[in-house]
Amino acid sequence: MQSRLGEANCLQGLAAVEAFLNQHADAQQHYRQALDIYQQVQSRLGEANCLLGLADVEAFLNQHADAQQHYRQALALYQQVQDRLGEANCLLGLADVEAFLNQHADAQQHYRQALALYQQVQSRLGEAHCLQGLAAVTRAQDGPAAALSGYAEALPIYLDDVGDRQGAAECLLAWGEALALTGDLDAAAAHHAAAVDHAEATGDRWTRTQLWRLQGDIARQRGDLAAARAAYDEALALAATIEGTDWWIATVNERLLALPSESV
To answer: Which of 33, 85, 101, 134 is 20 to 30 A away from residue 119, measured at CA?
Structure first.
């Protein structure tokens, strides 16, 4: 029994590393292998951890129905073993998927439920993720200007309370996108520059890819078509090195095709 549990723990750890490295197919395979073993040895916590990890990968790959199913299955298991942090992580994942699918009422509800649990277990990082998620929902429902205060509340938690530079980069990226949509391009560019510093420090290719897109958006709004094309090309080149980003590459190509022709 113990050797089988150890095997599952190794497979789960391997999957987590692979997911972090954007090696999604390998991560899915190893999460599923670990899940089978945890079910055999009746480790509900192990099952829950694998289902959560699997759902996170599926969410990144836009496999939304599978992700939602696995988040809910993991949530039920965490509730059985009374793991409130695990519950919060599942609710956060569900909310992220719902926000992406424009299911704003559900997303808002689950972000708030997750936030309450994170506050109970004193997870400041979880709180920051929820505040950023709620800001994204506010942006979708009420416009980008209404979301700015939410990003402003989340950022100091990432930077000052937990020292999470990756979280700070993602928050600054979202904040910069909202600022660009309000037309405040100078502030958007300043937030973009700050996000680049944090993303480069962590080596986070996915956030850097999105930052190239934001740089292209800012250049496009300023009428600098050459700079916009160059930035979008950089985004596409970097995205091509990350497994499972075909859907995102399509959105950048749409931006490129929408650029007006430069006058000769």
So the answer is: 101
How far apart CA 88 and CA 214 sit, in angstroms, is 30
Three-class SS of residue 81?
coil
Using a 10 angstrom Cβ sphere, with 0-12 exposed, 13-18 middle and 19 or more buried, the burial of residue 39 is middle
Which residue is it, tokens 């192990």? 46
Spans of the chain, pLDDT less than 50: 264
**What phi, psi does 160 have (nearest 5°)?**
-95, -35
Q: Give CB contacts under 8 A, 24+ apart, made by 98-105.
A: 99/133, 99/136, 99/137, 99/140, 100/59, 100/64, 101/64, 102/140, 104/137, 104/140, 104/141
The single-letter DSSP state of residue 159 is I
pLDDT digits (tens, 9 = 90+) for 112-155: 999 999 999 999 999 999 999 999 999 999 999 999 999 999 99
pLDDT tens, 165-190?
999 999 999 999 999 999 999 999 99
What is the model's pTM?
A: 0.91
DSSP 245: -
Dihedral angle sign, alpha carbons of residues 257, 176, 201, 20 = negative
Q: Among residues 216, 234, 233, which one has the least CA distance to residue 225?
A: 216
Contact 86, 108 (CB under 8 A): no
